[in-house]
Amino acid sequence: MTRAIALAQDPEDIRAQKEYIAYSKEAHSYSPAIQRLLELSEDYVPGAERAFKAGKPAIWCQANGFVPVLLYSLGVIPVAAGEMGRYSAKEDMLIAEDTYQFPVETCSMVKCVVAQWHKRAKTGTINRILANSSGCEPYNMAWEIVKKHGYDVFSNEIIYRGPTVKGERLEQLVKFTIGQMLDVAEWLTGKRAVDESRLKVEIARKNRLLGKLRQVLELRRAHPFYMKSLAIILTLNVGLNNYFGKPEEFERAIDELILELTKAPINEKELQKVIALVWAGGVGQEFGIYEAIDQAGGALLGLRSVPFRLYRQDLPPLESIARWIYDNSNAGAGVYAREVLDSEVERLKARGVILYGYIGCSYSTVNREMFRRFFHEKGVACVNLEGSFQTGAPTGQVLTRVKAFVEMLAA
Ligand code: SF4
Question: Whole-model pTM?
Answer without folding.
Answer: 0.94
